[in-house]
Write a structure and sequence with these properties.
Largest sheet: 8 strands, mixed
Strand order of the largest sheet: 2-3-4-1-13-16-15-14
Protein name: Ring-cleaving dioxygenase
CATH architecture: Roll
Organism: Niallia alba
Order of helices and strands: EHEEEEHEEEEHEEEEHEEEH
Number of domains: 1
Radius of gyration: 19 Å
Keywords: Dioxygenase, Oxidoreductase
GO molecular function, one term: dioxygenase activity
Helix content: 10-25%
């Protein structure tokens, strides 16, 4: 068994109506699925990605209206990276963020790559990361109807950063249980803190890295809007997922067991520092219940929720995603 990289990252938003234009009109991602939280179908679950919603490109949001702001801290997924094709693309995004009033830092090196830090409208922390010299897991394919030119477009998920108070137990989970390998480290920008460690899996590269940060100066995160709920890792297929379930049971981690999310199959477990991991299969994919050219335009429900459609639609605040191409 060999995890292939990052599958998706799921975060929290309080405002789907503002989330949707930020991630499509400003960041240029495609809304590939407008659905609901399967564990709480009274709220939206929005999926963004490349043109087909390929695994490794999916950024998702649970909407919890009136949710308090995220308080950053340890036991958290503290930053998500988004891949862009080149160093030149970062210069494009620097100007674009200025034009749209997006809070951002400056282009700087991080883990051997040029990056650009920014925050979304709910202060979620991101890095754009250049794929200029990346030779690992392939990126996704930009949507040709995006407002962002293809040569500068976001092509998928890059490294995900975990922040914990003590790294030992998380290192054991990453290496001994999940099969990640320590690649290198890079300096923290926070004074008197340890270097940030870089772990990789599968073919390696930007789409297969987890960065592990130790912080002794922070309280535990209080998850809220602008925070990340979990990170999912890629299993090739359902048979392999069942092997992971057996392995995680043997390691005596409490877990969800097999969960059918319709668009992929999953397992969830929480490691000792409180990070929630998901292992998800690459398929069946997001075109299972919608035509590829119309992904995300209508409310999609998995079969077990379809009989409750009228009730669900009566609760959800309407979100118009059936707009003409950019």
């Amino acid at each position: 068994m060999n995890l292939k990289g990052i599958h998706h990252v799921s975060a929290m938003t309080a405002k789907a109506k503002e989330n949707y234009p930020f991630y499509t009109d400003i960041l240029g991602l495609r809304l590939i699925k407008k659905t609901v939280n399967q564990d709480n179908p009274s709220v939206y679950h929005l999926f963004y990605g490349d043109e087909q919603g390929n695994p490794g490109t999916e950024l998702t949001f649970f909407e919890i209206p009136h949710m308090a702001p995220n308080r950053e801290g340890v036991s958290s997924i503290s930053a998500t990276s988004l891949r862009v094709p080149s160093n030149k693309a970062l210069e494009f995004w620097l100007k674009r963020f200025d034009d749209y009033g997006v809070k951002h830092g400056e282009i700087s090196e991080r883990a051997g790559r040029l990056t650009l830090e920014f925050r979304d409208f709910e202060t979620q922390r991101f890095f754009l990361v250049s794929d200029e010299n990346d030779n690992g897991v392939k990126s996704g394919i930009p949507w040709d109807k995006s407002p962002v030119p293809t040569e500068f477009a976001i092509t998928g998920l890059g490294p995900v950063q975990l922040t914990v108070r003590r790294t030992e137990s998380t290192i054991r989970v990453l290496t001994d249980l999940l099969g990640f390998r320590l690649k290198n480290s890079f300096p923290s920008t926070i004074e008197n803190q340890q270097p940030i460690m870089v772990f990789e899996t599968g073919e390696g590269g930007s789409g297969a890295e987890i960065h592990l940060e130790e912080r002794t100066d922070l309280k535990v995160q209080r998850l809220g809007r602008g925070g990340v709920h979990h990170v999912a890792l890629r299993a090739d297929n359902e048979d392999e997922l069942y092997q992971w379930i057996e392995k995680i049971n043997d390691a005596r981690f409490q877990n969800s067991g097999f969960v059918d999310r319709f668009y992929f199959k999953s397992l969830y477990f929480r490691e000792p520092n409180g990070i929630l991991f998901e292992i998800a299969t690459d398929g069946p994919g997001f075109a299972t219940d919608e035509e590829l050219e119309h992904l995300g335009e209508s409310l999609a429900l998995p079969p077990f929720l379809e009989p409750k459609r009228a009730d669900i639609e009566s609760i959800l605040e309407p979100l118009d995603t059936n707009k003409k191409p950019y």
